[in-house]
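In this section we walk through a basic example: taking a raw amino acid sequence and producing a predicted 3D structure, encoded as discrete structure tokens. The instruction is simple. Fold the sequence below.
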Amino acid sequence: MWYSPLSSLGKAELNDAMSSESLDIFVMCYNEASKLNGFLADLSKACTKIPLECNICIIDDGSTDGSQNIINSWLKENQGKAYLKESNQGIGDTLKYSYENSHSDYMTIIPADFEFNPLELPSLVQQATPNRVIVSYLRNSPPWYRLLITFCQKTLNLLLFGIRLKRTNWVKIIPSSVYKDHTLVSSSPIIETEVLLVAKQKGYKFVEVSSSNQVRNNREGGITFSRLFQSVLESTFDTFNLWIKLNPIYISYYKNTKDEHLQ
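The resulting token sequence is shown next.
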């Protein structure tokens, strides 16, 4: 959806600098039919308060609850885009699609389940500059199992990549210059860490901003120990795999092997 930027936010210099720029907003959706209309209404309201041209793209990951029908109905009355998958491909596939199909000056990826309040998006965007990556974290305390998973990921990010952030897999505002000339090597949710690592290597400044969160209804009952163990194991494996793929020794070996096959 394309919105004209407002000039009444009270920060004239910021608006003058950003009014000619644009923001891609990728919405991740999977079986959110009960919340989707309200979410899109709030997101539309938020876009009118953002001093950027906002382009909304809804990515549905193979929903089976009628979410795609709601998206199609919304698109008939609003200008936007959608990528409707026939089957569930996972968060990693959605993240990769978003980064590879973002063509604006800035981009963000937000979930459609109201875990992130879209009305808070303008406050994040107002802090964005071409040399900053705005990284939000949860103001409210999430469930204990989310805290454990986040702690494990934070520890690995610090030890392997030197990234010291409260959370890497939450809503961010990222300048396109971070990722537009980078070929993603990950295909899992660890893409979020990969993009932040690229930003760190390029010298971008990280600005951490708190945001509220709402626990998803289908997770309020908690998580089984086996599923928790699997999540931590998958995250650990993906993180080490990313470290290997971005290691200069591996990159040199891969390039030499590829050149030998081409000869």
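Looking at the output, two observations stand out. The chain has nine helices and seven strands. The two ends are 48 Å apart (CA to CA). In the next section we compare this with other chains.
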